[in-house]
Design brief:
single chain; four-stranded mixed β-sheet; 14 helices; about 350 residues; two-stranded antiparallel sheet
Length: about 350
């Protein structure tokens, strides 16, 4: 598999301009294993779509579930779940922050994304099954060029997906019976495009699974990295706390969009976390027809990797020859985001482009 790494925001933008030019032209999304096991486990009606019209339709309708209004409606639920995790942490002498944030994001998945009403024992089972699904779908054995017999019944990852689908189906039946609620799944189910068209039931299920897969692991990883960096930089933690204390005094305990918008220093900490420790090393596209980037040709049928880590490393606004600008101890400086003269100029840490992410 011939592969070329492309770094630098301008170079990556030049490459992305070649998307949606039609089959056999430009570049396109490529999901490894999509014709067999991986495709079956993800689903077929996702924004991994090279047809511009199909992608545009899915993106517009799915985007309604993640609009600013939808996020505003979700904040009370997210705050409640965050408070529950904080209360658990305060009761323990020693904690693993990765476990805390994994539980937190999975709680958001069942309560806010899917809108389920789970008992304590059901929550444990849900966490187990989602973890089993996320871990299992990355297994290289799924890339074999044939359908694994009994994939959904006899493999752990298949049984986990079947469980998740059953929970989504149960919730959709309730939404059909009782009408919309504040869950993300409800927004997916009832959202329409400009012509009044909705997602099919299958499209809702597949995209809900993708939201859980893409949202829980990435968010918990970012929060875990942030906790590491705050542990190494207690002065940064004190500044975050001071900012939040001021906002509580001004706006109250309830976490609202206004609170979020005014959390300027917290925002800089998250951005700096994603600069030093981006979620993924890069993103892949299949070159369907020879393209030119920065005066160099990338041949047809090669894979192009959007190299996020290298892009951050090479940023002229932050670069240091000794590599300390990417070091968790020496390079982590949230204040750089508060001044236009020190603000990073090459930053693209999260998401897989317009093709897959909202």
């Amino acid at each position: 598999m011939p592969l070329v790494s492309v770094s630098g925001k301008d170079n990556i933008k030049a490459l992305v301009k070649n998307e949606f030019k039609g089959e056999g032209r430009g570049i396109g999304t490529y999901l490894f294993g999509k014709d067999h096991n991986v495709g079956a486990l993800f689903g077929s009606n996702l924004m991994y779509e090279n047809d511009a019209n199909k992608h545009g339709r899915l993106r517009k309708i799915v985007g309604e579930a993640m609009s600013p209004v939808a996020i505003d409606a979700a904040l009370p639920s997210i705050q409640e779940l965050a408070n529950q995790q904080v209360n658990k942490v305060l009761k323990e002498d020693t904690i693993q922050m990765e476990e805390v944030f994994t539980d937190f994001t999975l709680d958001i998945a069942w309560k806010q994304i899917l809108g389920l009403d789970l008992k304590e024992e059901d929550i444990t089972e849900f966490h187990k099954m989602v973890h089993q699904y996320v871990a299992g779908i990355m297994d290289p054995i799924l890339l074999v060029p044939f359908h694994i017999p009994g994939l959904m019944k006899w493999t752990k990852v298949g049984r986990a997906r079947t469980y998740i689908v059953s929970k989504i189906e149960e919730k959709l039946d309730k939404l059909e019976m009782y009408g919309p609620d504040s869950s993300t799944l409800s927004k997916l189910y009832f959202a329409t495009d400009d012509d009044g068209n909705k997602l099919t039931r299958e499209e809702v299920i597949h995209n809900a699974i993708l939201l859980i897969f893409a949202g829980s692991e990435t968010s918990s990883s970012t929060l875990t990295c942030a906790s590491l960096l705050l542990g190494l930089h207690p002065n940064v933690w004190r500044k975050i706390k001071a900012e939040q204390d001021e906002l509580v005094a001004e706006l109250g305990e309830e976490f609202t969009r206004e609170t979020l918008d005014k959390s300027v220093y917290l925002d800089s900490v998250i951005k700096e976390t994603l600069r030093v420790k981006p979620i993924e090393f890069g993103e892949m596209r299949l070159v369907e027809n020879t393209v030119e980037v920065d005066g160099k040709q990338i041949p047809k049928n090669w894979f192009a990797l959007f190299n996020v880590k290298q892009t951050h490393w090479n940023d002229p606004s932050t670069f240091k020859e000794d590599g300390s600008h990417m070091d968790v101890r020496e390079g982590f400086q949230p204040e750089r985001w508060l001044d236009e003269t020190t603000k990073p100029s090459e930053w693209m840490p999260f998401g897989e482009g317009g093709r897959r992410c909202i």
